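We were asked to recover a plausible sequence for a given structure. The inputs and outputs are reproduced exactly as logged, with field labels preserved.

PROBLEM: sequence recovery
POSITIONS: 313
GIVEN STRUCTURE:
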């Protein structure tokens, strides 16, 4: 009887999704859907928070007050995105503290891109252009996903990411039109960030174990490879507009498919970074651990304050 109930509930759940309805926290959902969402939303939240580190590193060295203000605002926005996403994850009956401990213990993943170093100011421009640009392509789709709280969080995030991308591209355009040295700095940053940015979309479709389930339940609306191709198609003309070369000799426009073909991605490098062996993995986790230790007294004070208010009621 229980198994039959489960089949009926699953059918109803899938037909709601196919009709374009949002699933909300109190609705029935299969345990796999809940688990997949917790995995993905928490990884996304961790990525936003760890993602503050490479750029935060340049706040004190921004070349002007105007640049400093916009970078400060961007990094603060990433913290806010982390908060929206941890809140969205909590609607699935998981505790934020548990998720953070999974990050600090190295058990949870976060986007591999944040394990690369930011070596010069041009990196800040290129991160806004490529990394936020890739995030927009991915998250515009996630804003239409079947789970209400995650969809709404992404809607807000995308609005802010658009500003981030513009501030990055504007830095790139300014430096690309500057001195020979500035142009060389941008080109160097583009050479280092291009391929890792393509890897942000995850492994190729035939190597992506989670995609089939996520596509079936409309958490993902497009596959990893489809979104990667979209990012390449959008970015090539932007690179041409600022006269910057993307480091791929195999980039060719295919008139028939109307897509830009690109070269082979080094998946060995990707998995190596994901497994913890990238240039900055240890540094990033150590920084998050220190922030967590330094913030312990704030969390304790907040709990004590809430308890005291409850007792006084
Ligand atoms: N890095 O089956 P697959 C931002 C893992 S932050 C590390 O295709 P899925 C920003 C994947 O987790 C942007 N790991 O997975 C912030 C899986 O492992 P598990 C972050 C990766 O979930 C600050 C395994 O590989 N965005 O925008 O179907 C400043 C197999 O992959 C990566 C999000 O998190 C990676 N790049 O698809 C600026 C968006 N790729 O968990 C900007 C939400 C894959 O099975 N997430 N893996 O052990 C997603 O859209 C999807 O989770 C992914 C992967 C497309 C990333």
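RECOVERED SEQUENCE:
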């Amino acid at each position: 009887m229980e198994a039959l109930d489960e089949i009926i509930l699953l059918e109803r759940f899938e037909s709601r999704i196919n009709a374009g309805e949002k699933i909300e926290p109190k609705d029935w959902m299969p345990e796999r859907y809940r688990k997949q969402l917790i995995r993905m939303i928490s990884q996304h939240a961790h990525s936003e928070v760890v993602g503050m580190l490479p750029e935060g590193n340049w706040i004190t060295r921004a070349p002007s007050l105007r640049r400093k203000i916009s970078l400060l605002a961007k990094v603060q926005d990433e913290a806010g995105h982390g908060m929206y996403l941890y809140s969205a994850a909590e609607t699935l009956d998981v505790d934020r503290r548990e998720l953070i401990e999974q990050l600090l213990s190295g058990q949870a993943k976060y986007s591999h891109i944040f394990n690369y170093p930011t070596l010069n100011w041009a990196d800040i421009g290129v991160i806004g252009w490529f990394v936020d640009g890739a995030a927009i392509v991915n998250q515009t789709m996630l804003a239409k996903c079947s789970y209400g709280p995650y969809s709404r969080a992404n809607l807000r995030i995308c609005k802010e990411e658009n500003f981030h991308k513009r501030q990055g591209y504007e830095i790139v355009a300014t430096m690309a039109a500057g001195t020979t040295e500035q142009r060389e700095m941008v080109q160097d940053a583009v050479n280092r960030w291009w391929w890792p940015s393509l890897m942000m979309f995850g492994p190729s479709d035939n190597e992506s174990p989670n995609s089939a389930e996520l596509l079936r339940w409309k958490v993902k609306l497009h596959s990893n490879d489809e979104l990667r191709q979209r990012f390449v198609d959008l970015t090539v003309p932007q690179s041409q507009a600022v006269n910057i070369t993307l480091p791929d000799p195999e980039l060719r426009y295919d008139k028939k498919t109307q897509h830009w073909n690109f070269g082979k991605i080094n998946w060995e490098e990707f998995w190596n970074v994901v497994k913890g062996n990238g240039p900055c993995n240890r540094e990033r986790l150590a920084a998050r651990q220190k922030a967590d230790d330094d913030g312990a007294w704030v969390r304790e004070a907040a709990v004590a304050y809430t308890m005291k208010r409850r007792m006084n009621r």
